[in-house]
């Protein structure tokens, strides 16, 4: 009888074990089905995004090519601006040097020489002055104005010569 009870207990234990094993396998099967569906959804999303990403990459490449082409077209303009800046810098430096030299020259002249200096006669090609005759004390001021106008002309001439030399 012990044998029969032992066999019955072993059979019952085996049945319980099989029941739990079946439940575990069904839960694993359900998890695998869910995982499979999730992987399918992920694959579809990746495929859809892959097409969008490829399209974005193509557009970015086209845009980059267009920008490079336009930058190559702008390069000569930037080079010209650079040269113009250099020329303006050199003209400014020359003007600064001329004005400093003129200021030194005017400052170095004694005050009495400035007052006694006779007015130089106007060249034959100049246009006669339309201003009324001035008093004798005002002539040195007029001469100074004429001289300062002359140095401005010389600066213009120097700038033109420098531009022609550079080109």
Model description:
The chain has 167 residues and is an all-alpha fold. Helices cover 84% and strands 0% of the residues. It has 3 helices and no strands. The longest helix has 107 residues. The protein is rod-shaped, with a radius of gyration of 50 Å. The relative contact order is 0.05. About 12% of the residues have low confidence.
Query: H/E element string?
Result: HHH
- Write down the Rg: 50 Å
- Rounded average pLDDT: 79
Number of helices: 3
**Beta-strand content:** under 5%
CA distance, first residue to last residue = 124 Å
Which outline best applies? rod-shaped
Q: Structural class of the secondary elements?
A: mainly alpha
Q: In which range does the helix fraction lie?
A: over 70%
Largest sheet: none
Number of E-state strands: 0
**Unreliable segments (pLDDT under 50, ≥5 consecutive)?**
119-138
What is the gist of this entry?
The chain has helices at residues 2-108, 111-116, 139-166.
Give keywords:
84% helix, 167 residues, mainly alpha, rod-shaped
Secondary-structure map with pairings?
Layout: H1 2-108, H2 111-116, H3 139-166
Helix pairs in contact: 1-3
